[in-house]
Each structure stands twice: as structure tokens, then as C-alpha cells.
Amino acid sequence: MRYEYSHSGIDEGVLAGSLTRLSSYQKQLSDVVVKIDYTQPEASLAVPFDEDHWRRSKEVARKIGPIRQLVIVGIGGSSIGFHALYNALAEPEKHPSLHILDLLDEHAVVSVAESLCKENLADFAVVIVSKSGTTTETLANADVLLSILKKHFGDDIYGRIVAVGNEHTPLAQLSHEQGVSYVAIPDMVGGRFSIFTAVGLVPLALMGIDATPFLTAAQEHIQKGLLESSSSAQAGAVLSAHIEKGTKVHVLFYEHSRLEGCARWYQQLLAESLGKRKKDGSAVGIVPVLMSPRELHSTAQLFLSGFPAVLTSFIGAQIEKKDTNISTTEYGELLSLRGDRSFGRIPEAIMQGVHRAYIQQHLPHVYVTIEAISLATLGTVMAEKMLEVMYAAHLLDINAFDQPHVELYKKETHALLEQETM
């Protein structure tokens, strides 16, 4: 993975000072990793080094066996991370089809349930993910789904379910009572940081994918990222400096459709980790906005015009080209292409043109480029981004790991629901 920030719009002296300020925090993080310390909020960095997570995930997948359809019931960090992996890696002819039930959409839940009822019981699995074991959306979706499935398959349906969350929760207790497989994750690992736990590993195992390259790449990058002036530290320093100088929007430009899920995962990581109030009560954060080559014909005009207080991160990858050429007949004759008429050359040229336009307009931007889209490179990118937001939060003097204002809406929702049942 290559990280470049030569056009970040931040003074090098400011960045150097930030990197110096991070050195003591990096030593603290190193201790968490070396000791696999699950008592610290940064415990997510230790998870890839703990082989027990992958072992337990493989065990439950082995018990269920090969499947044709996989259902994930979970919202936010309970599903976004794995969806990113599936979006990037899944091949229809090799892997199960995926259904994610996150929104409270009655039509969607019933449709998935009805489609599963047409399958053999051995052809699908359901993974229910809730860190707290009390997530309203997840439990409501799970109840409707399983009620329909149980009516069709009987109690045998419990053998096709895996639940994932913290160890001592209502979901864990119910799973044990029903005979449902339950895989616990460390209490200190938040949902948006949980991709290297069973939250990501159980679905990978059920898909028949070996997560070893994913975990190994994450281990290697975390070790590199804890060194002074690492790309992770630089990224965190650039991001925090932009926030401190008043940058309000962070455009996450994913250059390939297979990276859209990763951009959405990164969007949640940024928004929930850095959208906070400081000790003095002042609000801090940056609004992450997704963009792709599709948006070059819509919102690109806004950002290329020099709209103020915007930082753009380009997330790209080398994509293997197919032997598809643009013909000189049909509609291809209308294109002004000389020399290389391969189909894959066009998106390359478009992105090169976008990069040149950003440089010419002196627009603040950084690059994250991976050599290919693979399980290993995704492990690297996700480890990089987790470190980046931890470093940025440390420099901003905020807590990257809580989400007090999300808890506020949950509290009010529970109060309304409880009031209506009285």
C-alpha cells in the first residue's frame, strides 16, 4: 500500500510537530499489541495477533458446512466491515450469495425469509451480530426472520444460526438456551473497529475463505504503523491538522466499484470516531462524503471548483484488465481514441485526468493506492485506517472509541418503545 500526502495542503513543520507528539502514544499502543491487552480501548489492534478468534470462527463454520446463501443480521459496525470484504472479493460462481438485514424494512426481511424457505436447510446460514446483545434493529429483524424460518423448518433452524457479540449479554444467554452457536468478541472492541474479530471472521469462514492472509497483512501493517513517521502516523497527522484548521468535508473518492464497501466502512470509522465534543464543549469532526467516477458527472463540479474547507482522499487499486477492446465500428467509432483502444485504459485515463485537475487547482488531497484488491491488501488498508483515526483522535484530544450521541438516540428510542407497551 502506498500513502502520499504531497498535496495535503498542510505545512510540513506542522506535520513534523504532530509526528513528534505521537511518539509516546505509539509506545502505549505497542504495549497493547505485545501484551494482547483487551482491557484497553485500542484492543482492536491486538485482535489480529490472537489466533483464537480465527480458530473459533472456523469451528462454527465447520459445524454448519458449505452453504449457498449467507444472511447477516446486524447494523453499523456489525455488518459494514464484512460487506466491504464481500463487495471487494466475492465471485458469484465461487461464493455464497449475501443478504444483509440492517434497516428495519419489513418487506426485505420477509423476502429473505421466503427465499430461504425455498432452500434446503443445509444450504444457508444466518449470522446475528450485536455487540451489546440488545440492538433494537438487529433483534427485531432477527425475530421476524427466525419466526418465519422456524415455522417452516422447526427447531432444526437453530443449528443454522451463529450469534456474535460480547460475552455476557441477553443475546449470548438466549443463544445458549436455544443451542445456537455463540462466538464472543472482546468487550473493549467497538463495532467500527471489530472487523478482525469474529464479526468479520465468522462470515469469512462460512464463505469458505481462509482469513489467514487478511490477519497476517493486518499484523504486519500494525507493526509498521506503530513506528515513528509511519504512513499511518502521517495520515493521522494530516487528518487532524485539516480538522484543526477548519476543514469540514472529507471526500472519500473510491476509484473502483469493488472498493465502495471499503469507503463506506471508512466513512463510519471517521464519523463515529472523530465526530465528538472536546472537553471545553466545542464540536470537532469532519463530514465524510463518498464519491466515485460516477459522481464526476454530478458533484465533481462542486469540489473541483475549489469549494472551501474540503480534503479529498483518493482510494485506488491496480485492477487486472480483461482482453476487451473498443471497436472501430458501432459506437466505438465515435470515440476519439488513438493507439491503445483497450476498455480498461479509459477509466485509467479518467482518473489520471482527475488527479491532474486536482493538482492544477491546488486542491488538498491525499492518495491511498493498493497494488491489487485482495484479502491481504484489504487487511492492510483496514489496519491503516484504524490506526489513522486513533492517531488523529489523540492529536485532537478526543476519545475515538465512545459514541455518546448515538447512545442518546438509542436511549430515547427505548424510552418511547417502553412507554408504548405500558
What characteristics describe this protein?
single chain; 422 residues; alpha/beta; Rossmann fold; 2 domains; five-stranded mixed sheet; five-stranded parallel sheet; 47% helix; 14% strand; globular
Give a verbal description of the structure.
About 45% of the residues lie in helices and about 15% in strands. It has about 425 residues and is an alpha/beta fold. The chain has two domains: about 1-30 and about 215-405, Rossmann fold, CATH 3.40.50.10490; about 40-210, Glucose-6-phosphate isomerase like protein, domain 1 (Rossmann fold, 3-Layer(aba) Sandwich). The protein has a five-stranded mixed sheet with strand order 1-12-11-7-10, covered by helices on one side. A five-stranded parallel sheet has the order 3-2-4-5-6, sandwiched between helices. Strand 4, helix 5 and strand 5 form a beta-alpha-beta unit. The longest helix is centred in the first third of the chain and has 24 residues, at about 10-35. The chain is globular. The mean pLDDT is about 95.
For the biggest sheet, the summary is:
5 strands, mixed
> How large is the share of residues in beta strands?
5-15%
Over the alpha carbons, how many angstroms does the gyration radius reach? 23 Å
Task: Tell me roughly what share of residues is in helical segments.
Answer: 40-55%
Total strand count, please? 12
- CATH superfamily of the largest domain, by name, is Glucose-6-phosphate isomerase like protein, domain 1
Poorly predicted spans: none
Separation, N- and C-terminal Cα atoms: 56 Å
Query: What is the H/E string?
Result: EHHEHEHEHEHEHHHEHEEEHEHEHH
